[in-house]
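[scheduler] slot 2 assigned
[scheduler] job type: sequence-to-structure, two independent chains
[scheduler] chain ordering preserved from manifest
[runner] begin chain α
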Amino acid sequence: MVVREKILDMVVGCFKRHGAKRLDTPAFELKDFDIAGQFDPMIPDAECLKIMCEILSGLQLGDFLIKVNDRRILDGMLAVCGVPESKFHAICSSIDKLGKISWNDVRHEMVAKKGLAPEVADRIGDYVQCHGGVSLVEEMFQDSRLSQNKQALEGLGDLKLLFEYLTLFGIAEKISFDLSLARGLDYYTGVIYEAVLLQTPAQAEESFNVGSVAAGGRYDGLVGMFGPRGHKVPCVGLSIGVERIFAIVEQRMKTSGQKIRTTETQVFVATPQKNFLHERLKLISELWDAGIKAELLYKNNPKLLTQLHYCEQMGIPLVVIIGEQELKEGVIKLRSVASREEVAIKRENLVAEIQKTLSES
């Protein structure tokens, strides 16, 4: 739950930074960000990709790449390759498997199972194995077949503009124009995108197949389908795969043996002597009232070693120790759990000293 909460906090924090407001509707969840309304082309789309980059960088999941395509380019490509419109959906779902299976396997599925002519499949293969940056967009503008298709040209024009904005946002190198990206959902009408983690050789050996961790696109026709008057509301959005990211983080923690703190306790109140429960309770109440996250053991007379061991186990950074000597001298000992160094602090200065130590750590 702690890991999940951290991931969600990071995602929601990024959404809020970009002006999001929460909608009380089951259609939109914490992991979704959508921009609805009539705006100039590609500005909201570019912001969605920026948000995706910010979240994936912030979660420190390793290197990633966001594949981008456009449904109009995809449909235009299928048309100029000679795919009958009735087979667009079936062929798209085959193309969508590229990356999980090889082009030869995809081609076989198209020809043997979906009845596509081999030469048509080969033409598709020439396109869907292409990926690159804005230079590939320019290249496709010059393509003799694709440049004849009005839909494809519209999509390429928008992608060119999109890359201009992505460069201004400083994220163009994270984005790859990938003609194999099909995103099997029919409601997408324009730009589509999908983020994948780039595995290190060690992760590849562990055969932990990550797949997509975030995705989205433009769906200008969807909202109108659910409205009473069918008003067209242009929309673009993204969805963060929180559960998948959570599984990746959990897997990596197991592999590396990394522990995660399950509490946020900053200070532990301890004593080396018997009959000091009242002093500990007064002290911890003072810390709580000052907004400091503090804990103690619920025992009258716990052993000091048990208390210190608990702090190490739970990753609590500071311990305040009160005993007879400290009481007599009007001081409290402040101990760093990591370094085991102790300093004596005047009782009245304790809260200020703890706050100073915590702000420096």
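[runner] end chain α
[runner] begin chain β
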Amino acid sequence: MSAQAQMRAMLDQLMGTSRDGDTTRQRIKFSDDRVCKSHLLNCCPHDVLSGTRMDLGECLKVHDLALRADYEIASKEQDFFFELDAMDHLQSFIADCDRRTEVAKKRLAETQEEISAEVAAKAERVHELNEEIGKLLAKVEQLGAEGNVEESQKVMDEVEKARAKKREAEEVYRNSMPASSFQQQKLRVCEVCSAYLGLHDNDRRLADHFGGKLHLGFIEIREKLEELKRVVAEKQEKRNQERLKRREEREREEREKLRRSRSHSKNPKRSRSREHRRHRSRSMSRERKRRTRSKSREKRHRHRSRSSSRSRSRSHQRSGHSSRDRSRERSRRRDRNSRDRSPRDRDRKDKKRSYESANGRSEDRRSSEEREAGEI
């Protein structure tokens, strides 16, 4: 890559698609399905393993450093949850790698001659020491490149100890097998990158393998996958809690609305019942008043009838008394006259008085009856 292309890539990575007002590059957004989400998170296997023996070629989705810069800027304000897509991508890739490893192991088991379990364990010990030496040598090179000479020397001391253990393990393994069988190349499959390792590989080759881009790239991918799993689990748990919280809030609001609606529905009933009670009390009071009025009218009517009857009786008594008094007065007068007159005249007068008294009583009786009828 030329210096100009490197400079352009650096600017894209720092400023995104909006640098220098270049609007032609803004036709596609980082959230588009055509953009590789693993590339945005800097863990796409096509980028990590580029230039190795297992180079996967160009990714089928869009890779652009400017889009990655846009995503990094936007992700500070909003969570797009692209980790889930990247995790699915890396899981699929690692699953394919593990299947290749199992197939390689099966092929080795079929091609190599069968050995006893004890010999296999001794050979496994030699392989373990080879891996340890290779990893230590890769670390020594890394520390030397960083300028840390003291740590590099300490790691080299550990390498020498591992080499001594390896020589002892090889001697034990050689003594447990015939010379012809020991000379055969024994291979082993690397559990990380599925590459083949030889039992008799020298330290240089082991250092090249364990410190090489292929092996370190697979380590990076596997570590990134574990990190994505952890991040996705945390975000899913957080989202579930937020969803549960929102659901509880909705349920609380619904309960509150239901309680309010019930209270609103109860109040009209109470008001109606109160109004009904008031109406009943009013009607009852009206009925009482009506009854009291009717009773008072009846009392007044009875009182009037009684007073009229009393007045009639009194008038009748008065008339009776007056008629009696008159009759008595007349009888007294007749007695006096009878004393003064002759017996014949007295007889005539007595007859006349009796006749008049009888007629007067009938007239008095008739007049009293007429007065009673008039009053009624």
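[runner] end chain β
[qc] chain β: The chain has eleven helices and two strands.
[scheduler] slot 2 released
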